[in-house]
Amino acid sequence: MAEPQRIFELYSSPHLKRPVSTDIIMRNVVMALAPVVAFSTYQFGVSALLLVLTGMTASVAAEFVFTRMSRRDNTLGDWSAAVTGLLLALTLPPGFPLWMAAVGGVISVALGKAVFGGLGVNIFNPALVGRAFLQATFPVAITTWTPAFVPGRFIETVPSTLAAPFMQPAPVADYVARAVDGFTGATPLALLKFQHIDTDNLRLLFGMTSGSAGETAALLILLCGAYLAVRRMLDWRIVAAVLGSVFIFSGAFYLAGHGKYPDPFFMLFSGGLMLGAVFMATDMVTSPTTPRGIWIYGVLIGAVTVVIRLKGGLPEGVMYAILLGNGVAPLIDTLTQPRIYGAPRKRLFPQKTAKQTEATK
Fold this sequence. Notes:
Blueprint: H1 22-44, H2 46-69, H3 80-90, H4 98-112, H5 126-137, H6 173-177, H7 188-195, H8 201-206, H9 218-230, H10 236-257, H11 264-269, H12 273-280, H13 291-311, H14 318-335, H15 354-360
Helix pairs in contact: 1-2, 1-3, 1-9, 2-3, 2-4, 3-4, 3-5, 4-5, 5-14, 9-12, 10-12, 10-13, 13-14
């Protein structure tokens, strides 16, 4: 009697895989950002909540339209579009007109994902692509800030929130005048750069300042990121590299400038650094994958952020630093590929062989 034929199936590594899919990761990102959204609503009122809902709705709708137009499978179930809209909204001023936020959500999906072929093949972080577009298109609106903890913020919106498209929004002077003493509409980075006014680090740490809808509470953002890191849905090395490099480079400026530059703790807790380092620089698609490349990528983002903040014309530079890091991530991966065990180390500029030298003569 003939023995039964045995079939051996060969697969490439990894052979052990975690039962974690894209939709599970994205849902956890939304859950991790929920406390940030809740604090933003408490801090800026109903305008911040409407901004988040508008950004998410516009991004999800754009995702649906583009997948239908390209005849690709519907990807709304993976929650990536919702995360894109949520992150975009959290980088915008709380009184940003809703129609502009909707435009930003569409652009984030269109230019950040759809033109590259969808999720997984995009080069840049989609939310930051939308943010950069809004920065270039509506520079006045995106640099118009409203103070935090204004009385009546839960029953009325900032006048500019419901502005009609392409129409001059209502003045916000009366709204700003009701702000609690000690709270100004300017961000801490803008106050320091243009008015040379410092902000207490504890206020920055606990979110007692003005700023974008989701960037003020540094400690809360760090705790939310720790939740994802514990669940292994976030690479803590990128966060450590970004924050560590900002602390070191800004500390060097602080010591060399003898008080001319802000202290490194101010640089860590202010602006969008914490939100960008924890939730945007760690994007699995647009960040490097090699062990050494991850650290180089994070240090690059931190260094560029410090240079733009201290030496550039803009008070903030996190967005441009992360986009630059996204752009060079493939090159970093190429140059930092681990050496195969037993194989000779690759040279960045290989030496020519004798035959190649003779051929060029």
